[in-house]
């Protein structure tokens, strides 16, 4: 049986892992390779590296650190941030990444999803979606979320966009529920359940993890394939070995490590 | 003589397979040169993408008959394994025909109440269950987990060494003579994957 995936997300700036407080005041967390290995050793099933400076600086991800990670890491990893073209994706995949994740560029030019799927196969193409509930009760997509001063609300409904990116060739969807992100009060089960019904490809939950039981809730109640988190892992609030023991105790299939 | 040659037919995961072999201390070369490939002690056919594109790249590089004629141990990884079969439903393409049978699509299934649905692509860690003995799986426990990413899979038959289940049972590790395949990604399957690669390089495979 397929395991549910636990996915730490690391923000990368200039080849270092950083921790941002409200997207600014970044604190250096350490060397990217050392942290990647640490999470691998603790039993992470996959890693996501988000190049937080690539997109605002309108440049592609730096190939150098992707290659350094690929040389040492023996679990899959995905690179997000700054991928706007087939050439950008090729650079990252040839450097050793397993998948690329695109968010705002897919909203700006949806054909990019198809171009990437045609060039590398759907299994390499992850679409990240930032979503927030509006006053009228609808979940809608946001873009440029990497920079709070530029973030834009779109008229596009999140569930429609989930359907469209699958038709375009997304092999996986990461849904970041902005309303619960950073609050550590649990994943947005309601939104993720709705997303699950609209999503036939693997779906990864993001935003809101605070405790081990939040993870078992999202697997049990929203049937997501993976759960992504950053700060709870970085701070040590949730340790991956203990998290997996707890998930196993609750009957959630996870990888032994 | 190079210890192990990775066939370079333009796939995207060449780097990660090479790094995994280098971590084992192997002398690795990536090549599309027929004479280099023929002279290798071990040959690996990696591959990511579609069967039609994978076969087209091999044909373009003039490597179809080279791979068919290899006598040393050969390991196909993921799409590389699927290309060893006679044909694939993916693009209705004729493949290398080194293993009998046809690769077919995994079908998404809606779960009943309480049971999870099956999503395609099959992406993530799943368990290997041995159905035949092979030195390729020495030291790998029954039920060990490996990382899969694929939408098509080969049938379970007499060449199957280990199966996995995603909606249906499919061939996860295969071997006939010196021709082997792994549907999962050993280069991304932590200690399970590195053990399989180490076994493939060992003298036990000949």
Automatic annotation (TrEMBL), chain A:
<feature type="active site">
    <location>
        <position position="130"/>
    </location>
</feature>
<keyword id="KW-0028">Amino-acid biosynthesis</keyword>
<dbReference type="GO" id="GO:0000107">
    <property type="term" value="F:imidazoleglycerol-phosphate synthase activity"/>
</dbReference>
<comment type="function">
    <text>IGPS catalyzes the conversion of PRFAR and glutamine to IGP, AICAR and glutamate. The HisF subunit catalyzes the cyclization activity that produces IGP and AICAR from PRFAR using the ammonia provided by the HisH subunit.</text>
</comment>
<dbReference type="Pfam" id="PF00977">
    <property type="entry name" value="His_biosynth"/>
</dbReference>
<keyword id="KW-0963">Cytoplasm</keyword>
<dbReference type="GO" id="GO:0005737">
    <property type="term" value="C:cytoplasm"/>
</dbReference>
<keyword id="KW-0368">Histidine biosynthesis</keyword>
<protein>
    <recommendedName>
        <fullName>Imidazole glycerol phosphate synthase subunit HisF</fullName>
        <ecNumber>4.3.2.10</ecNumber>
    </recommendedName>
</protein>
<dbReference type="InterPro" id="IPR013785">
    <property type="entry name" value="Aldolase_TIM"/>
</dbReference>
<dbReference type="InterPro" id="IPR006062">
    <property type="entry name" value="His_biosynth"/>
</dbReference>
<feature type="active site">
    <location>
        <position position="11"/>
    </location>
</feature>
<comment type="subunit">
    <text>Heterodimer of HisH and HisF.</text>
</comment>
<dbReference type="InterPro" id="IPR004651">
    <property type="entry name" value="HisF"/>
</dbReference>
<dbReference type="GO" id="GO:0000105">
    <property type="term" value="P:L-histidine biosynthetic process"/>
</dbReference>
<comment type="pathway">
    <text>Amino-acid biosynthesis; L-histidine biosynthesis; L-histidine from 5-phospho-alpha-D-ribose 1-diphosphate: step 5/9.</text>
</comment>
<dbReference type="GO" id="GO:0016829">
    <property type="term" value="F:lyase activity"/>
</dbReference>
<keyword id="KW-0456">Lyase</keyword>
<comment type="similarity">
    <text>Belongs to the HisA/HisF family.</text>
</comment>
<dbReference type="InterPro" id="IPR011060">
    <property type="entry name" value="RibuloseP-bd_barrel"/>
</dbReference>
<dbReference type="InterPro" id="IPR050064">
    <property type="entry name" value="IGPS_HisA/HisF"/>
</dbReference>
TrEMBL record, chain B:
<dbReference type="Pfam" id="PF00117">
    <property type="entry name" value="GATase"/>
</dbReference>
<protein>
    <recommendedName>
        <fullName>Imidazole glycerol phosphate synthase subunit HisH</fullName>
        <ecNumber>4.3.2.10</ecNumber>
        <ecNumber>3.5.1.2</ecNumber>
    </recommendedName>
</protein>
<keyword id="KW-0456">Lyase</keyword>
<keyword id="KW-0028">Amino-acid biosynthesis</keyword>
<dbReference type="GO" id="GO:0000107">
    <property type="term" value="F:imidazoleglycerol-phosphate synthase activity"/>
</dbReference>
<feature type="active site">
    <location>
        <position position="187"/>
    </location>
</feature>
<dbReference type="GO" id="GO:0016829">
    <property type="term" value="F:lyase activity"/>
</dbReference>
<keyword id="KW-0808">Transferase</keyword>
<dbReference type="GO" id="GO:0004359">
    <property type="term" value="F:glutaminase activity"/>
</dbReference>
<dbReference type="GO" id="GO:0005737">
    <property type="term" value="C:cytoplasm"/>
</dbReference>
<keyword id="KW-0328">Glycosyltransferase</keyword>
<keyword id="KW-0378">Hydrolase</keyword>
<dbReference type="GO" id="GO:0000105">
    <property type="term" value="P:L-histidine biosynthetic process"/>
</dbReference>
<comment type="pathway">
    <text>Amino-acid biosynthesis; L-histidine biosynthesis; L-histidine from 5-phospho-alpha-D-ribose 1-diphosphate: step 5/9.</text>
</comment>
<comment type="subunit">
    <text>Heterodimer of HisH and HisF.</text>
</comment>
<feature type="active site">
    <location>
        <position position="185"/>
    </location>
</feature>
<keyword id="KW-0963">Cytoplasm</keyword>
<dbReference type="InterPro" id="IPR029062">
    <property type="entry name" value="Class_I_gatase-like"/>
</dbReference>
<feature type="active site" description="Nucleophile">
    <location>
        <position position="78"/>
    </location>
</feature>
<keyword id="KW-0368">Histidine biosynthesis</keyword>
<comment type="function">
    <text>IGPS catalyzes the conversion of PRFAR and glutamine to IGP, AICAR and glutamate. The HisH subunit catalyzes the hydrolysis of glutamine to glutamate and ammonia as part of the synthesis of IGP and AICAR. The resulting ammonia molecule is channeled to the active site of HisF.</text>
</comment>
<dbReference type="InterPro" id="IPR010139">
    <property type="entry name" value="Imidazole-glycPsynth_HisH"/>
</dbReference>
